[in-house]
Structure formats: C-alpha cells, structure tokens
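Q: what sequence does this backbone want?
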C-alpha cells in the first residue's frame, strides 16, 4: 500500500509539472519553467519513495530521494517566486545550484543501514558537510524567497499566494513527519504539489488572460 501511495503521488506531481511545462511553452513565462522543475523534483522524490517502499531502500533510491526532496524542491520553488518578481538573473544562479546539487547527491559517501522499507534518516546516512549543509541552505533560501514574494504581492494575488504558502507549509510538515513512513509522507507531498500548482495558476485579479500561441 505504501508503494502504491508513493507511486500515485509521483504520477500526480509529474502530471502537474507537465501542465506547467505546457503553460511555459504557450506563454514563455519564466516562473512556470522553474515551478515545473520544482514539481518535477517532488515527483522524483515521490518516485524514490515508491522505489524504497516496494524494493527496500538502497543507495541509488536514497540518492534520488534526497536530490529531489531535500536539495531541489524548495530551492526551485524559491527560484520561481523570484522570477515572478522580475529577478531574471536568479535563473543562472539556479542552474549553477542544480548542477552542484546533482553532483553532491551523486558523489557524497553514504553511511548507515539503507535496507528495509522505512524512510532513512538523512542525519544517520549523510555527513553534515556538504550534503546536509547544502540542503539546509537551499531549503532556507528557497522558502524565504517564496514567503517574501508572497507577502510582497499578496494584495495583487491573494488567492494564489495563500495556496502557495499552504503548499509550502504542507511540504514542510511532510518533511517533519517523514519519520512516520512512506504512508504518511507520500500523500503530504501530493497534497503540497496540488496546492502549489493551484497557487501557480490562480488568476491575478484584473489581469488579462494569457494569449495562446498559434
């Protein structure tokens, strides 16, 4: 059952990510590209949860889970928020960060027991430097960017910002409850992705609808 829940979460988040890709291709709105990548990171983490629950945790499964869930998701959400606020130069910083995160996730030595179906505790598997420090910095800065942009633009996009903040809160709660297992974490990731997607595509009051490409 845990594997099925995680697999369903991966399918939901991947579908939402694909829709944001479609919206980006139509409107060329940079924030949509970053948000699509963020939801793809959620899908990656959910897929790794399904992998670990079905076949038992292993080094490759944990590396994929940590990359998508701990290193990329919050940082890419923050990138999307900053692009929404017109900070175009953050795209280059984000690309450098993604490359660094992938390298750290693939190359950092792992320790501890990775067998069984319980979600491994990163504190028992990874040294503080560099993987956990990078995750802390990426999550902190990404979440801060989301919150600051949401607060600054709240009057312009009240519904969208409420949904985005709710999605970030659910994702943070899911991470905090990760010790309860895949059965608790996977639905939280799916719910967070749905809330975030709804916030990303919520209309701005008074704004004209985006034109479709011909």
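A:
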């Amino acid at each position: 059952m845990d594997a099925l829940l995680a697999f369903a979460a991966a399918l939901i988040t991947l579908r939402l990510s694909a829709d944001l890709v479609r919206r980006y291709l139509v409107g060329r709105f940079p924030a949509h590209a970053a948000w699509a990548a963020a939801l793809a990171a959620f899908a990656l983490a959910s897929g790794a949860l399904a992998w670990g629950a079905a076949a038992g945790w292993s080094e490759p499964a944990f590396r994929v889970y940590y990359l998508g869930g701990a290193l990329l998701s919050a940082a890419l959400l923050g990138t999307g928020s900053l692009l929404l606020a017109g900070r175009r130069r953050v795209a280059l910083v984000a690309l450098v960060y993604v490359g660094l995160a992938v390298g750290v996730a693939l190359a950092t030595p792992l320790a501890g027991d990775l067998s069984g179906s319980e979600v491994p505790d990163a504190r028992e598997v990874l040294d503080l430097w560099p993987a956990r420090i990078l995750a802390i910095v990426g999550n902190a800065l990404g979440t801060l960017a989301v919150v600051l942009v949401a607060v600054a633009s709240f009057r312009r996009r009240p519904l969208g910002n409420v949904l985005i903040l709710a999605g970030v809160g659910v994702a943070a709660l899911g991470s905090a409850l990760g010790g309860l297992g895949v059965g608790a974490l996977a639905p939280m990731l799916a719910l967070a992705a749905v809330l975030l997607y709804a916030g990303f595509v919520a209309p701005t009051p008074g704004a004209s609808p985006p034109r479709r490409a011909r």
